[in-house]
Amino acid sequence: MRNTIVLVRTDSFQKASIALADLVRYGGMKIRGDPRIIPPALSDWAFEQISGEKPRRKFRAHVVAQIDLPPAKAIGRLMDIHPPAHVLVIPPDTDVCDELMRLWKTFEKLKGFHPPKRTKAEELREKRKEEEGLEEF
Q1: Residues 3 and 67: beta-carbon distance below 8 Å
Q2: Dist CA 91 CA 118 (whole Å)
Q3: Measured between alpha carbons, how far is 127 from 77 in angstroms, rounded to an integer?
């Protein structure tokens, strides 16, 4: 199974890292592998292919990352968290995804991004959910 890709378009790579961290922490998404930096022209092309319209604004930082959720669920969670960047979900069954995956190894890795560490409260909540899920059966 192929992964869904998110395209983050923003003014700086620091904001892109924050947006990705928000996807993990507040959106419950898991980033698979390392996020990659892509050329602005490729980002604009991907945006145009997925949204059906030309980009209205130019950004300086363009980053792609693979996530572990299906596109519909990722879009729903994205709408709930409002990250500090323009984020576009690219489904795995599109030509855009095929092209990005073909070029994936040629893209530079985003330096300085580390998924946020889980707090003790988050770990306890997840442990309780697992325990409650076991008791239901």
Answers
A1: yes
A2: 28
A3: 22
Q: Which residue matches tokens 């500090």?
A: 84
Helix (H, G, I), strand (E, B) or coil at 12: coil
- C-alpha–C-alpha distance, residues 32 and 68, integer Å: 7
Express the helix, strand and coil content of the chain in percent, nearest 5 each. Answer: 45, 20, 30
Q: Comparing C-alpha atoms, which of 31, 38, 35 is closest to residue 116?
A: 31
Give pLDDT tens digits for 12-66: 999 999 999 989 888 888 999 999 999 999 999 999 999 999 999 999 999 999 9
Count the residues in the chain: 137
Structure tokens at 40: 């602005």
The Cα 49–Cα 95 span in angstroms is 9
